[in-house]
Amino acid sequence: MRLNPLKHHDKPIINGWLAIPSGYSAEIVGHQGYDAVTVDLQHGMIGFSDALTMLQALSSTPAIPLARVPHNDPAQIMRLLDAGAYGIICPMISNAEQARRFVAACRYPPLGNRSFGPARGLLYGGKDYPQHANQQILTLAMIETQEGLENLEEIIAVDGLDGIFIGPNDLSLVLTGSAAAESQHPQMLAAVERVLTQTRAAGKIAGIFCTSGRAAAERIAQGFHFVTPANDVMQLIQAGREAVAHARGEALPARSGSGY
Ligand code: 3PY
Ligand code: MG
């Protein structure tokens, strides 16, 4: 089976993020040097057939294809793994039971309850995918709720969970009342630092969503192993605004804290 380099990372993982339902943009993004690219079925405008085409497009690039599911649903997780995703990011994990259910959906028996029907897993991963998928598929649980923060230790400790991915917009929304991915609010700074420290102490991947490459570089310097330097929509917005402002000789308009 094709090995998943994200499972044995020695350098920070730079992860692209796709919200636009297009195989063509997936292919373009996959060729830009990212280690991994995530197809976002939670907040992206993406259904299963779009995701299939996008995972196929990503397969033709060096980037490892990942998917974020809309919620902790074993049927959705199974279909995206069958479609060739080499890892799943699951939003809104709030306790260990939810994390165990998530991991079980990503693992064939006896480790979990993923149903057998590997489909594109065989095409992307290779003929021996069924024998090795349990070891190669990446599982990242998103911490972005108050309860998730409170139950952090027990979530991180779940066997088979590879790491944590912070959703800073949702997290800052619940902690500070406004969605701001790079919020400097003391409560948010403390929460992010706590998730980072505890995840690293457990020897697992510490990941976070960011709104720009510069913000992602700061997160890497802070100690994160897995960063997303904005999604395709944010990059399109930023590039469009810059182009218009430069053409008009005007100052760049201010960005919103959420990146949108
Ligand atoms: C968040 O910031 O809440 C996310 O889920 C990132 O997409
Ligand atoms: Mg979120």
Automatic annotation (TrEMBL):
The protein's name in its UniProt record: 2,4-dihydroxyhept-2-ene-1,7-dioic acid aldolase
The organism of origin for this protein: Paramixta manurensis
Keyword flag Zinc: no
Family the UniProt entry places it in: Belongs to the HpcH/HpaI aldolase family.
Domain HpcH/HpaI aldolase/citrate lyase: 17-239
Keywords: Lyase, Metal-binding
MF GO annotations: aldehyde-lyase activity; metal ion binding
A cellular-component GO term for this protein: cytoplasm
Gene3D superfamilies: Phosphoenolpyruvate-binding domains
